[in-house]
Amino acid sequence: MPSLTVNERPLAFDMDPQTPLLWALRDAANLTGTKYGCGVGDCGACMVLVDGEAKMSCQMSLAEAEGRVVTTIEGLSPDRSHPVQQALVAQQAIQCGFCTPGIAIAAAALLARNADPSPEDIRAAVPNLCRCGVYPRLVAAIQQAGRVLRRLETIDPVPAPGTSAEDAARAVPAIKAT
């Protein structure tokens, strides 16, 4: 029975060890923020952090994940306060949202290594496909998140889930230089 730590919780999966990590997370752990996109590791919709590195969960088996620490979009920041999540909203870099969890995970992994990435660094580290084509906004959002992490800027928080529709409609993140 493969065991690993998912979002800071030890979990044992009563599944075939060759099951893709993606399906274990979605079907057994009910962590549906990790999306199924292409199934062959090309799109990035299934991206998760494995021991701090961005990995395609459709390409990793439970056996390969055994004993490792996995972070999904739900574990990145349960209240959506991670600088990447806040900057994606502030820069209006989210359209349909399907690719967003994978992009946020890839960006968080990049910023953990390099909080001041160039556009070229971002394009290399965030290979995710976005059908909506918001790539220039993604680059701006990831650079903004880096500035937040370096304490050069702040973003007023976006309302948490459960906020009334009226309050959420009025909420536009404010960006402030510090």
UniProtKB/TrEMBL annotation:
InterPro entries: 2Fe-2S-bd (IPR002888), 2Fe-2S-bd_dom_sf (IPR036884), 2Fe-2S_ferredoxin-like_sf (IPR036010), 2Fe-2S_ferredoxin-type (IPR001041), 2Fe2S_fd_BS (IPR006058), Beta-grasp_dom_sf (IPR012675), Diverse_Oxidoreductases (IPR051452)
Annotated region (Disordered), positions in chain: 159-178
KW Magnesium (keyword) present: no
Short name of any one Pfam family annotated for the protein: Fer2
Any GO MF annotation of the entry: metal ion binding
Signal recorded as keyword: no
Keyword terms of this UniProt record: 2Fe-2S, Iron, Iron-sulfur, Metal-binding, Oxidoreductase
Organism superkingdom: Bacteria
Listed PROSITE patterns: 2FE2S_FER_1, 2FE2S_FER_2
Ranges of residues in domain 2Fe-2S ferredoxin-type: 1-76
Protein name, UniProt field: (2Fe-2S)-binding protein
Lineage: Bacteria, Pseudomonadati, Pseudomonadota, Alphaproteobacteria, Sphingomonadales
